[in-house]
Design goal:
mainly beta; 5% helix; DDE-1 domain-containing protein; nucleic acid binding; 80 residues; DDE_SF_endonuclease_dom; 1 helix
Length: 80
Amino acid sequence: MEGQGINGLVIGSSQENPNTVPVKTINARTWTSIVECISALGVALNPLVIFKAKSIQEQWFKKDFLAKHPGWHVTFSENG
């Protein structure tokens, strides 16, 4: 759902359609932090995605993305 050029980082799910993952244009550069954790006991915490923004934009997600990924947390910070 986010990207930096052809060979850059892409955030998205390829499980819905393994032949395509949406990528933004090469000029779109933003800071996005992703926090994932698996404890020493093997317990995984739900992922947290932090966008650099003043608010969450609805167009950043497919309408059903969060519904298909229960437990994911999405927030924003002016620092990313």
